[in-house]
Design brief:
By secondary structure, the chain is α+β, with helices and mostly antiparallel strands. The protein contains eleven helices and nine strands.
Length: 287
């Protein structure tokens, strides 16, 4: 299924306080228009049938699974799709309310969401997550009080940590030290991607060799360290192309490429389309 089969690509509706959670029970969620999201999303689906399309990837829905969608991605449920489960939306500004100790978990899961788009969930893990989502939903529907956003952010932090643990177990089952080092690396990439693209620089920050870092990333994340860095750069480039009017030249220098041509070659090599073609496709459609 391709986006041309949908009428238009609409932009996310504004969410009050950049945070929302809801429960769908046997809900028909087929969409005539695709949605370009400005809020990160988590779907915890206990039961599901149909299809979810994210960017150009099609995911058959089967239930007992998580879907993680990052700001800037385009998604749609195919007509006739039915889901039972939770939908959680949050903006980056709301995430900043969560304790800093959880920042690496978000980096692992959402900085290159395409690598973690769908996660199968073991029944025991699903039961634990459902309890957390139930508690979060109850808190969300309470009347407003002074520290309510902080309470919601605390639940979000716990949910993010639990999902990061599920992701780590699915990918590798590595010990806690290796997982922690991997998360430190992805956290560093999210902070320094615009100043350095070199594996060796991140290895120095972590006190390991570049070879060790690459091996660890393959073990814990299924991809090499360079691929993770490139994934962050592509994600940030896409966001800039979609949500700003900056020229390609300006984006290239913002991401620390030596020349616009170097950036253009990098972008096309990793996405299959030029930066201008990408902007035309995802920004002008539906306007």
């Amino acid at each position: 299924m391709k986006w041309k089969e949908y009428g238009t690509i609409q932009t996310d509706k504004e969410i009050q306080d950049s945070f929302a959670v809801c429960y769908h029970e046997q809900a028909t969620v087929g969409m005539e228009d695709a949605c370009r999201i400005v809020y990160n999303r988590i779907f915890l689906l206990s039961e599901a049938q149909g299809t979810l399309v994210v960017d150009d990837t099609t995911w058959p829905l089967k239930g007992n699974e998580l879907f993680l969608l990052a700001k800037g991605q385009v998604f749609a449920f195919a007509p006739g799709s039915v889901i039972t489960g939770y939908e959680l939306s949050f903006g980056d500004c709301f995430w900043e309310k969560a304790p800093a100790s959880a920042s690496n978990c978000k980096a692992v899961l959402f900085n290159n969401a395409a690598a973690n788009q769908q996660l199968s969930v073991h029944p025991a893990d699903e039961r634990e997550l459902i309890l957390l989502f139930q508690a979060l939903l109850r808190e969300y529907h309470l009347g407003d009080y002074i520290n309510k956003p902080d309470a919601l952010a605390a639940y979000l932090k716990i949910i993010m940590i639990k999902i990061a643990n599920i992701q780590a177990a699915l990918v590798s089952g590595t010990d806690s030290y290796e997982s922690q080092l991997f998360r430190q690396f992805t956290g560093l990439v999210s902070k320094h991607y615009s100043s350095t693209h070199e594996v060796a620089a991140y290895a120095d920050m972590l006190g390991v060799t570049a070879r060790r870092l690459t091996d660890l990333c393959k073990q814990c994340g299924g991809r090499g360290a360079k691929d993770i860095i490139n994934g962050q750069l592509i994600a940030e480039a896409k966001r800039a192309l979609q949500f700003s009017a900056k020229a390609v030249k300006e984006i290239a220098f913002q991401l620390n490429f030596s020349t616009p041509d170097q950036f253009s070659h990098f972008f096309k090599k990793n996405t299959g389309v030029s930066a201008n073609e990408f902007r035309e496709r995802f920004v002008k459609i539906g306007r």
